[in-house]
Amino acid sequence: MQGCGRGLRAAGRLGSVAASRGASRGASCGPGERPGGRGAALPAGPDLRHFLRAPPGPPPSPGPERGAAAGPGTVYLETYGCQMNVNDTEIAWAILQKNGYTRTKEVDEADVILLVTCSVREKAEQAIWNRLQHLKALKARRQQDRLPLRIGILGCMAERLKEEILHREKLVDIVAGPDAYRDLPRLLAVAESGQQAANVLLSLDETYADILPVQTSAGGTTAFVSIMRGCDNMCSYCIVPFTRGRERSRPIASILQEVKMLSDQGVKEVTLLGQNVNSFRDMSEVQFQSAAAPVLSRGFSTVYKAKPGGLRFAHLLDQVSRIDPEMRIRFTSPHPKDFPDEASVLQLIQERHNICKQLHLPAQSGSTRVLEAMRRGYTREAYLELVHHVRDSIPGVSLSSDFIAGFCGETEEDHQQTVSLLRKVRYNVGFLFAYSMRQKTRAYHRLQDDVPADVKQRRLQELIAVFREEAARANEAMVGQSQLVLVEGPSKRSASELCGRNDGNIKVIFPDAEIKDAAGCKALVRAQPGDYVLVKVTSASSQTLKGVPLCRTTLACSTA
Question: Are residues 134 and 106 in the same domain?
Answer without folding.
Answer: yes
